[in-house]
Design goal:
Layout lengths: L1 H6 L2 H28 L12 H15 L10 H9 L4 H11 L1
Length: about 100
Amino acid sequence: MRKHEKYQTYETNNALAEEIESIQRYDNIFAEMTENFGLDTSIPVHDIDFGCLKFRVQMFEGLCGKFSDYGLKYIRHIHFTCAQSISIFDYETSLVRAC
């Protein structure tokens, strides 16, 4: 945003618009996932099942694209789909619909 404010070019405007769209996309995907599954993301992260998490992150990236720096903040939501025993079928279906 600061770069666009400083230079006010077509390129900085497009870059800003793409970044805002990406942020909104991540927010929407994970808000929908949280609502659909009733995820409680306020509880502390304990006992991470790294196998489950890795598989689900790979599935997310295969269906929705590689995580951006902003999107990485939502990895904990994916952890909670593992911790709260959301089936892999339901998780995949949710991603297909959201992405």
